[in-house]
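step: validate -> pass
step: tokenize input -> pass
step: predict -> running
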Amino acid sequence: MVITAVSGEGEAIDFSSLVEAEQAGLRRIAARLLRDEDEARDLVQTTFADAYERRGSLRDPAAARAWLRRILTTRALNHLRRRRLWRRVREIFGAGDAPEPAAPGPAPDALVMSARRLAAVSRFLDALPARQAAAFTLRYLEGLELGDVALAMGVGRGTVKTHLHRALSAMRGALVEPEESP
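step: predict -> pass
step: emit ->
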């Protein structure tokens, strides 16, 4: 079944094809932003539902890909803010004392080092403000151009550059491994 939608300019958009073409990319972006596969799947589905409801606001069907990334990024930023707020609430009221799930079994040395680096980057991204983390993820992990990051975040290129600069400055300080003392 083909689901068509009409954009704000009156042009028909094959929404089913758009969903099929963009779903994998949006799930990858969502998983990198949220670092949770289940939440990423939910976020992508919500993004498509929102996009379908707002299909009349899409002025240029050629911009549908960027439009979807912007909806996803906005929802992800809001989700990350709520997650950070609830984490602080749990810390304040002592509800965060549940043990962490056990890590998978041991891996070869190269995988262990890689996992440590990825964990450090993940902790670093968790500590960043949501917009800086989103800019960093979209630019460096997803490989989007500055203009595409700006479109996805709904801000100007200069603002993206500022977020990236601040994120990279923070990363330089946070990811430097301490030297061993004799």
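step: describe -> Residues 107-182 form a domain with the Arc Repressor Mutant, subunit A fold (CATH 1.10.10.10).
step: cleanup -> pass
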